[in-house]
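Chain A, query sequence.
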Amino acid sequence: MDYIKRAIEEVVEHSAKTFKCILVTGARQTGKSTLVKHLYSDIKQVSFDDPFVEEQAKNNPEMFLSLNEPPVFLDEIQYVPSLFRYIKQSSDNSDSKGLFYLSGSQPFKLMELASDSLAGRVAIIELPPLSLREIMKSNYTSPFLPTMEYVQDRNKEAIKPSNIWKIIHRGGYPEMQDPDMDWAMFFSSYVKTYLERDVRELAAVQDLDAFRRFMVACAARTGQMLNYANIADEVGKDANTIKNWISILEASGIVYILEPYANSALKRAIKTPKLYFRDTGLAAYLTRWLTPETLATGAMSGEFFETFVISEILKSYSNRGLDYRYFVSYYRGKDKKKIKKNGAETYEEAEIDFIIEQDGVLYPIEIKQSANALADMTSAFQVLDKIPEKKRGTGAVICMCPMPGSLRENVLQIPYWFI
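Chain A, predicted structure.
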């Protein structure tokens, strides 16, 4: 299969000119090794997937680095964490940039190791699965923002896919873009490798069958609020174990935990986070939606579409090297408005699927699988007007509408392929 150009290439190349070490991290099979090998085919490459090489590096790290002088690409570096201190020493002995190219499949663990040992020397770059832009071979790189300026700019080359449910069902792992790759076989191998390598490495989980059931239970809840007790009851484990296992999924790039928007002005907000799988293909495999057609018409189609849209928005930021974790959220609570019900005053619950915060402006987003966007879908956006120190920016309904348009003042309808 031909190499698929990655949107993050420019970020990697710029980082290599300004930092001594470049760490490309992300979940398994997102294309980290392929990316680095494509950009730097002329440098030496060493993979710690080879047990013999791993043992050499662990037993005699100084000799290992003397035999593999920079510039060098060290793949699956998470298997030799002790090597980081020696990489630091080697980096400090040189004024050159782009000395060590590192990659690995345990994002949070590697970020922690790199931050502790290589602070100021390393650029940490998270490579997500392929975005819709990359699959459609788009060169557009600006992060998504629901503004008229963004929509006008994106309109120049936005391409609608012929079958979005086929893309959602197959997911964004590069190998799955090969039409000859068997969907079930790929994900079966993926889950097996993930359980036997990453799960045991991160937390020494012994009961892998229970962890597999746990993954299925989480996939069935993508796009929903995270209820630890509910998952614990289904899996037959206690809530603390489930919390620990959720952290494993997050640390290895399998799921994303979307935190609720927090502000003292919103006194009736729900403080429970939401869970999203980072790849819809993996979630579809775990929940046994075997074809794009059954997924599109099934009971979870709305959750899968929301998961896909939020994942695409996050990719538009991470592909520019931006850490989105601190400026995205969602809102759910009873701050919307007072209503009279059975003669008593109560608050009607409101929900905003996604909020992007930028320069003190909150951009609310509603996600609907429908092709028909209605202004009433955005009535909850007014909740954000209660926050005195923030300004509410343009809001949007992201849906399957045929073209962008205005629903009301300051609210747009945006097709999903404009993300």
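The mean pLDDT is 92. Residues 117 and 212 are 33 Å apart (CA to CA).
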